[in-house]
Design goal:
about 80 residues; alpha+beta; single chain
Length: about 80
């Protein structure tokens, strides 16, 4: 939840969508936290939000990243 990522943050309701931690996203995508870190370095992974030293992900960015990798056969790129 957002309170776990930014405990002292008071965001307006329009932007108060709960953010996901790197640990939560690693569980969703079945990859290690280290893999997420490498993806951030190389720009291969989903968009992320950095607040000071904390990393968070917006659920829509995870869904968009997954949808961009959707294919119909193994001959398509990205498989």
């Amino acid at each position: 939840m957002l309170t776990n990522i930014l405990p002292a943050c008071n965001l307006p309701e329009a932007t108060a969508t709960p953010l996901l931690s790197a640990k939560h996203v690693s569980n969703i995508l079945c990859v290690t936290i280290g893999t997420l870190a490498k993806w951030r370095v190389y720009g291969n992974g989903p968009k992320f939000i950095r607040v000071n030293r904390r990393i968070a992900y917006h659920p829509k960015d995870i869904a968009d990243w997954l949808n961009a990798r959707r294919v119909s056969s193994t001959s398509e790129g990205g498989a």
